[in-house]
Amino acid sequence: MDAEREREIADVLALAGAVRGAVGQVIEGKPEVVDLAITALLAEGHLLIEDVPGVGKTMLAKSLAKAIDCTARRVQFTPDLLPTDITGVSVYNQSTRSFEFKPGGVFANLVIGDEINRASPKTQSALLEAMEERRVSVDGTTHLLPRPFLVVATQNPIEMEGTYPLPEAQRDRFLLRISMGYPSPAAEVAMLDHHGESDPLEPLQPVTDAESVMRAIRIVRSVFVHPAVKEYLVAIVNQTRALPQTRLGASPRAGLQLLRAAKARAAMDGRAYVIPDDVSALAAPTLAHRVLLNTQSQLSGQDGSDLVTAAVRAVPVPAGRG
Question: Which of 14, 88, 124, 281 is the most exposed place for a label (fewest CB within 10 A)?
Fold first, then answer.
């Protein structure tokens, strides 16, 4: 690795460390969750946080937004939320006798979609074009979204009252799905001490900016992936389709997303190349929400993570560094 490349990877490593430290001030005892959120940011993907209310889903999104000093907007998804509330709407201006575009909630670097599965499927679908193509079309006019662009959506489990399950097409747009989980007793005691008397976001200071994040994203994209590692990744994706408990396996888009996430993980680890461990470590959070199990497997208590874990175990790891 030449000197220039070493400096670039070192810059990504430093940026990730700074963001990790800032967000860790608010989200205590969850380093793996914070790292996955940063992975989504550097891979320029979208993050779906699924868990029960009150475990810090929205706080993670808000702290990430403040740490990177980018524009952020929060959209509270409710059953009466309209698609135009997401994308924006053209409003007639009587003084100019023309229509003016009023941007919706999606026009920000980081969009926090709170409880996304409480909105109707029609409103959920309004995010699809924005998430995939980073633009929206209103009244025949295309409007580009700012970069970097990251949707951090939170959702409650679908069995909870008043929620709509996300359709497969919507879930496939999210790079990673993570679960916060309950904090450890020690972390919960620390939370009571630090967050009980003041807003935990108030002392948090930005540690980077949009320009630096975009530079890091460009560096991450150029991380080297050996053909053997690509074959290993594709074999895992194909294995999710071949297992007997599968009703719907991972899509080709899922493989592309896993590759991008693996590149981000490699750079965050100070490497300019991807190793098989990067792929296997991120397989479950990248693929589990994109696969569907057959009825028998669901009744036996299995979920997507179990299927992806079985797929990873079934594929031999390539020799060498990758």
Answer: 14
